[in-house]
Amino acid sequence: MLTFLENKTVPDLPDQGLHALAITNSLAIKGVYFIMTQNTESLQPKYSGDIIVRKRLSVETGRKWSRESFYTMLAKMGYVEKINEDSQWQPTKKAEPFVNFRNGVIKWNTAFVDLILQQLPKQLTLDI
């Protein structure tokens, strides 16, 4: 049986995205540690600009998403807002877990597309 003791970044390897977990085997002698490394780079969220997100939405929905229709839809869902008519779209608090907003550029977490697809109304098509 393995017991989790602590979770630390390996100081000599921070640029390589490696992480070490110090564990001990509770059936063995206490104080014997094993180091397991894993690449945490793949655990970091990936972000894409609205062009990539709109392309994926187009593929998934079969509808062409212009920049304006995309942000209008997000505004109706509460993820973006305009402070005034002439301003750019800005993420709301609701969008914070899914957005990287730096230097006035909105980038969306790739998992955000799945969330949007779940919230879009489904169109029923009948083959006659």
Tell me the domain tally: 2
Structural class: alpha+beta
Give the integer mean of the pLDDT values.
76
Oligomeric form:
single chain
In total, the number of strands is: 8
Could you tell me how far the N terminus lies from the C terminus, measured between alpha carbons in angstroms? 61 Å
How helical, in percent, are the residues?
10-25%
Alpha plus pi helix count? 3
**What is the gyration radius calculated from CA atoms?**
22 Å
Report the principal-axis shape: globular
Largest sheet: 3 strands, antiparallel
Poorly predicted residue ranges:
1-5, 12-28
| H/E element order | EEEEHHEEEEH
The strand order across the widest sheet is 1-2-3
Strand content: 25-35%
General description of the model:
- With 128 residues, the chain is of the alpha+beta class.
- It folds into 2 domains: 2-43; 47-119, no CATH class.
- It contains 3 helices and 8 strands, in the order E-E-E-E-H-H-E-E-E-E-H.
- The strands form 3 sheets. The chain has a 3-stranded antiparallel beta sheet, with no helix packed on it. The protein has a 3-stranded antiparallel beta sheet with strand order 4-8-7.
Question: Any descriptors?
Answer:
3-stranded antiparallel sheet; 2 domains; disordered N terminus; 30% strand
